[in-house]
Amino acid sequence: MSNQSTPPTHDPARLYFQAPTNYFWRWAEAGEIAEWENGVTISYRDELQVVVAALAARGVPPLGAVLLLLAACSEGWPTSGGQGVLAGLASVFKGRKGTAELQFYLNQACRFMDLVHALPPELRTGPKKLHLFQEVFPPATTHRGGAKGQKPTVGRTLSFEESQGALAQWASGRLDEALRQNGPVVGAEYLLADLQCLDQAFQRFPSTELLALRLRTGLDQVPAPLPEPVVPEVPAEEPTDLLDQLTQDPRTAGLARLTQRLVAALRIPLHTRQASEQPLGGIADVTNRGNFDRLLLSELAHDDLTLMARLVNNEALYLRREAPPAPEVRPRAVLLDTTLRMWGVPRVFALAAALAWTRNSQHGRPPAPVQAYALGGQQAEPIDLASFDGVVETLSRLDVALHAGAALLDFARSQPAAADSLLITDAELLRAPEFLDALAEAKTALHYLLTVSRSGELQLYEFHNGHRTLLSTSSFALEELLLAPAPRRPQRNLPPTSGPAFLQQQPAPLLFPTTGLRVSPRNTFYQRAVGVLAVTDVQRVLYWPYPHTGARELLPEIEPGDYSVGTNCTTELYVLVSSAEVLRVYRLGIGGPEMEVESVDLDAELTHSEVVEVVFKDLCFYVRRGASNLVFDCQAWNIKERALARLPEAASSGFKPDFGRVKRHINNGYTPLLRIKRLGVNGSGDFVVEHHVLQLRRKQSPHSDDFYLNSPSPNSSSHRASDIPYAAQFVDESTLPGNERVRLQRFRWPGGSEAVVDSRGLLHLRSADASVPEITLTLVLGQPLAFWAADGTVCGPTYFTGVAREQSLSAPEFYEQYLRRFISSLID
C-alpha cells in the first residue's frame, strides 16, 4: 500500500523475516509462499505464522531452522530436491571457507529431517505439529547467535519481547514491501547456525521412535515395568455355561441353537393365585398417592366438586398396603415325555424346550428351583438338565410305550401339588383317547402343558380350575436350526510350518505392494480417518492406513460375495460378506501392529435366499434376507434382535468411492513385477530378475542409497548386463497355505540355492550356504526396494518396512552382509 513505509534496516522484524540474497529459500507470490531456491514450496505464510506464534512464548529460533523443519513435515520432502539445494549451498560456502564442520552439520540436519518425515502423519501434521516444533526447539535453542564461538547475529532469533512486536508487524502487512527485496549476502556461519539447531535436536532424539515417544507421552524413555508376580499356571477353564458347552460339541450344537431360540420365545406366566388371596398384606400407611379403589371411604362423603378438587390437588387420602417380607418362590417341575411318539426330531425339540424352560426359571427374579423328570411307559424318573453329561444322557433315553399316561399318573400320586408342573409331549397325543383319559385324571397336578410337533410348531397351554387354555403358539425352522453348521469364530491365521521363512512370520515383517486389485465400489472402501480397505482379485483383504505405507494383509483369504464395511473409526473394521451360500461378519483389528481377526457365521439365522438389503448404522449390521431379518451388534459381538419391523434408512458409512484419491493412497508410483520366468546372476555379478538388474543407486547423502530394479536400454552398452549366465531353473509351482489363489513359483540353482516368486509381489531367496539367512525383497519398479532377512534385519524405505527399526541397515551394509554372500554362493 502507498501509505506504508519501509521499516529501517535495523528493525528486528525485517532482519528475522527477510530472505538472504544467496540462501536456500526465498519469498514468492508477494510474500505469501516460502519456497526452495529450485521453486518447490516449503510453506505457506499462514502456516508459518501459526508455527512462529506458537514458539513466541519461549523465544523464536532462526527462521531458516523453522523452515527446514516445516519442509521435513511435508509429504513432499523426499521429492522436493531440498537436500540437493542444501548440498549445493554448502559446496559454495565451503569453496569460500574450506571446512569439514559445515558438511558434518549438513549431514546431521538431513538425517534429522528424514527422521522427522518418518513420524506417523498424525504427529507431524495438524494441531500436533505445533507440539513437535516446541519439542524440537526448546528455549535453549533460541540463543542469540550463530555457530558456536561465532559473534551474535542480530535478527537470527527473537526474544519473547521482540517476537510479539515482530509478529504483529509481519501480520499487519507493513513488512510486505521490504520482504519483496532480498536481504544481505550471508556466509557459511549463517547456514551453520540453522543446521546446528537441527543437530541439537538430533542429539536429543536420535531415532524416530524416541521422538514419537516424546511427542506421545512427554517421556524420553518408557519406564521399566514392575517385576511380574510369580503366578502359578492355571489350566484354561472350560466354559461354565451349559449352552456354551453344548455349542462347542458338534453332537449338541444344533440342540444349543434351538434352545437359544426357545429361551427368547417361551414366557413363563405369573403364578395364578386363588380368588380369596390378597396380593399384599395389611394396611401399612395412608398416602396422597394411589389407585381410586384404595381411596379412604371418608373421601366419598364429600360432594362431587370437593372430591374432584382434592383429587386434582393431591389432597385425597389413599390406603397403602403392606408389602410381604419376600416374594413367594414356588418350585417347578418339568415332565419330559420319552415314549415312542417322541422319537426322532420331536425328542430333540422337547429337550430344547425343557432346557429353555429350566433356564428361564433359574434366571428369573427371584430364581425358581427346577426338578426334571423323564416320563417312560410306567414311571417318572429324575433326570439332570443342569450338566452337559446329564443332557447327553437324557438324549439317549427311549421308551417303547405308546404314551406316558401311566407314568404321568404315577407322578401325580407321588409328588406334592405345591410345585408348578410342566408336561412336554407330542401334539398328536392330544388326539389319543387313552392318553387324554390319563391327562384328565392327572390335570390337578399339572399347571402347564407344552406340545411339540415334527413340523416345528410349539403350543403352550395353562390349566386353570381343570380347564386347559391355549397361551401361545410358535413355529421354528427345525431343519435349519438342527442341521446347519455351528457358528464359529476361527482362530488367528497361523503361519505355515514349512516353506520360506517370510511365510512363517506373523504378522508379515514387510508391508505388501498393491497387486491384483481393480478398484471398484464393490471391493474398495475409503475413509480419510481410517484409510483404504480392499478385497483383491484373489480374495485377499488388504489395508492401507496411510498413503506413505504399503499394504497390511488383514486376511489371506475371504469368501466371495457382496461386501458391506463399517468401522468404529479408531481400532476396528467390520466386514459383512453376503451371498446365497454365506453370511458372515468379520471383525478386523487395526489399532496396533497385531492384526486380530474374529468372525461369526450368521447363515443359519436367516432363510436361504439372496440378501435383499444390508445397512450399517450405530455399529450394527441390519440384514434382511428373504422373509427374515436380524440386527448384529458389532461392538457387543452378538445378535441384538431377530424380529425387526423394518430396516432403518441407510446412514452414511463414511466410505467414499473417491477412486482418484484411493489410487494415490494405495500406490506411491511403483509398478509390481509379476510375470517372472527367469532370474539369476549376470556376468558382472549383479542379480537379475527378468531383464531388470538389481543395482545400488547412490544419492548425494550416503544415508539415502537405495536398491532399484533397473531396466537397461536395448541400445545401451549395458544391455548385455541383463544376460544371465548363472540362471536358476524352474522347478514347480504351488499355492500359498491359506489361499490357493496365490501362486508360489520355485526356482533352483545347481548348487542347491532356491528362489520362490510370490505372486503377492515378493521374492524369497534361500542360499545353499546355511550361514546366509533367508532374504525376502519386494518386486517393484520405479521405487526403492525393501529387504528383510530371516534374522530380523530390514533394509529399504519405510514405505515397505514400516516404522524405523533397530535392526535396520543401509543399502551398502545390507548388500555386504547378505546379498553379496548369497550371490557369491551362486557363482562359486
Summarize the structure.
It contains 22 helices and 38 strands. It has 828 residues and is α+β, with helices and mostly antiparallel strands.
Helical/strand content category: alpha+beta
**What oligomeric state best describes the polypeptide chains here?**
single chain
Sum up the overall morphology in one term: flat
Distance between the termini: 77 Å
Q: Mean of residue pLDDT?
A: 82
Lateral strand order in the biggest sheet: 8-7-6-9-10-11-12
Beta content: 15-25%
User: Based on DSSP secondary structure assignment, what is the total number of beta strands?
Assistant: 38
Q: Biggest sheet, open or closed, and with what strands and sense?
A: 7 strands, mixed
Question: Helical region count?
Answer: 22
Rg (CA only): 40 Å
Structural domain tally: 5
Low-confidence parts: 1-9, 142-155, 274-278, 486-492
Helix content: 25-40%
